[in-house]
Amino acid sequence: MRDIFLDLSIRSVRLNFLRSILASIGIVIGVVAISSMGMLGANMQLSVKQQLSSDVNTIMITSDVVRTTSTAGTPVTAEGIDKSTLNDIKNAAGQNVVIPIHRTNTQFTIGSTDGRGSIYGLDPNDITKFLSIDQGDNIRGANDAIVGPNIATNFNMNVGSRIKIGQDNVSITRPTVRVSGILTARGFASDGVNTDNAIIVPDTWYTDHYGNKDIYDQVNVIMTNIDEINQTEAAIDDKVNRKSNVVRITDASSRLSSISSTLGTITSFILAIGSISLVVAAVSIFNVMMMSVNERVQEIGILLSIGTEKGEIRRMFLYEAFILGVIGAVVGGIASLVIGYSVVSAMIGNTAYFFMPESIMYVPYGMIIGVIVCIASGLYPAWKASNMDPIDALRSE
Amino acid sequence: MSDRPLIQLVDVSKVYHLESGDFTALNHVSLDIDENEFVAIMGPSGSGKSTMMNQLGILDVPTTGELFIDGRNVATMSNLERTHMRRDVIGYIFQKFYLIPLLSAYENVEYPLILKYKKRDESGRAWDVLKSVGFDQNMSAHRPNQLSGGQQQRVAIARALVNDPKILLCDEPTGNLDRKTGFAIMDILINLHREGRTVILVTHDPKIAEFAHRTIELEDGRIVSS
User: Fewer CB near the last or first residue (10 Å), C or N of chain B?
Assistant: First the structure.
């Protein structure tokens, strides 16, 4: 059997149908704002995560020893990773792929155009382990090179083009490499190897011209199983950094988490904007509840005088607020599915993540907040109603 | 307890603190009402009738003096205890009926039972009481605003009776009714008194007061005859 106070509340809402619906619309808007803003943020995070997580299986190891110089103006640079450290890393990494990397910046000339960019020295066998070649072939000869797609486009390079490496200086004949292949665009690479604007040469060519044989600027470990990334990092740390910090071990997941936390902040911010509309809704619910109480003073007086407990009067009005909240939340929940989907597809251009739990949970989340806001707005009116003096209330018309 | 009258006022005063100064609505009133009495309270307006009714109905507490109802001192009861006393010991019948507008006639009668037992009535008591006051069952689904004054007052009496109260407080029960309907309502009250209830009736109509066995006249907050 239904509670008579719930019945009274339902009838009161029905009696003042238009007013109640108008107040509920406030809640609808609030729920829609919270849910769709939340879903927008969640979809933003999910899609960025997806873009970044392609390289999260890579551990990046760089030297932690800083080389200081006494010459003024010479930049402070990191020491490289030496051969014995590399062997330790290989031992610790087990069967995961270890890729030692040489890297510096250089000037170069193609035809008569000068340019500047990164140059990487890699074992040709390692290149295909994490890079993909769009045109041409991998490095075969000692003077072959592979270039990134942006550099190729900017300097009109083709397979077979020749690049002079080094600063243009009349007194020196610069070494020349031949482009054997052009890489597929990588975009922002979270494994620290940004090849879109780079030239990749064989490691032997690199050390012949830049020295630093067996001294590497970075070592990447590509995990075959991403779940073991933390154990492998710990193993490397244990092996290499036993006495003092020799290398710095990072992976893209830390960067990913910092980007995620930034996006999380943005999400909270837009959620806060959305919740302003709920504050407005709360005011309108409060107003309607006060009207309902003030219109029914005599009825409250009757209820109190024939023995209704204060708590029962409070319950009656809280039910009313709850009903308004539920109406608003249900309509708002449905509307936020539609509106949220449109907003996400318009602003992110990808609705693949829309129905994932991280995103869709904002609908029930918004609905619950809507109902809670409604009940909270009804607290004072309910309290006011229950504390009326029955004699005064009865006398009012 | 048993030697104490059902209702006992001992030197009861009620003072309202108004901006224009204190107003004494009841001035040192002492009164006993025994079980199964039929008492009419009369007096001109402003004489303290309503204040007296509010005291007897435990809607208010005396400023000074003591009021015992059913052996209990009203001043020492908690708000909740007074609420339960209003629900279980006293039945109210008002001049303006004061039915709950959102509830049907039947639900209005059922309501005090729900308050008392915290559930819908399954005993048929609400129906029985409605029948006993001569209310047409076909009308019981109607809301109060669809009923005539006489019908509404029958529903109100049924509501007052449904929890089997010892005391019936009637505040001008016929004041909003035509003479014929008024007497029909009075017949019901006389029967209820005959069945053993204590009936207290406030009226300014001497014809109505004649039904009572004892008339208490109030003037300026004092009892001038009883």
Answer: N
Domain that holds residue B115: 37-51+79-225
CATH number at residue B169: 3.40.50.300
- Answer whether B115 sits within 8 Å of A312, measured CB to CB: yes
Residues from chain B contacting residue A397 (CB–CB below 8 Å): none
B159/A15 CB distance under 8 A: no
- Give A105-139 pLDDT, tens digit per residue: 888 888 888 888 899 999 998 888 888 888 888 99
- Is B30 part of any domain? no
Q: What is the ipTM of this complex?
A: 0.93
Q: Which of A8, A302, A306 sits opposite B87 (nearest CB)?
A: A306
Q: Is residue B26 part of a domain?
A: no
Residue B62 in domain: no
Question: Tell me, what's the pLDDT at A78?
Answer: 56
**Chain A nearest C-alpha distance from B51 (Å):** 10
Rounded CA-CA distance B201/A244 in Å is 100
Mutation pick from B54, B59, B152 vs chain A, by most beta carbons of A within 10 Å, is: B59
**What pLDDT does residue B197 have?**
94
Contacts of B190 by beta carbon, 8 Å cutoff, 6+ apart = B38, B211
Query: Would you call B86 and A309 a contact, using CB atoms and an 8 Å cutoff?
Result: no
Under a CB-based contact definition with an 8 Å cutoff, are residues B49 and B41 in contact?
yes
Interface test mutation site (partner B, options A302, A312, A316, A320, max chain B beta carbons within 10 A) = A302
User: In this complex, is the C-beta atom of A11 within 8 Å of any C-beta atom belonging to chain B?
Assistant: yes
Tens digit of each residue's pLDDT (9 = 90 or more) over B175-193: 889 999 999 999 999 999 9
pLDDT of residue A1 exceeding 80:
no
DSSP letters, B72-139, are: EEGGGS-HHHHHHHHHHTEEEE-TT----TTS-HHHHHHHHHHHHHSS---SSHHHHHHHHTT--GGG
3-state secondary structure labels for all residues of A9-59: HHHHHHHCHHHHHHHHHHHHHHHHHHHHHHHHHHHHHHHHHHHHHHHCCEE
Q: Is residue B64 part of a domain?
A: no
In this prediction the pTM is 0.73
pLDDT score at A229? 83
Q: What is the C-alpha separation between A304 and B57, in angstroms, rounded? A: 12
Strand pairing report for A66-67 and B90-93: unpaired
Tokens of B201: 């009736």
* Contact flag B86-A299 (C-beta cutoff 8 Å): no
Q: Please check whether residue B134 is in contact with residue B161, taking contact to mean a CB–CB distance below 8 angstroms.
A: no
From the candidates A306, A316, A386, A387, which should be mutated to test the interface with B, based on the most B CB atoms within 10 A?
A: A306
Which residue has 């106070």 as its token pair? Answer: A5
Q: If residue B17 lies in a helix (H) or strand (E), which one and from where to where? A: strand B7-18
Among the partner-chain residues B80, B86, B102, the one whose CB lies closest to the CB of A305 is: B86
Q: What is the domain count for chain B?
A: 1
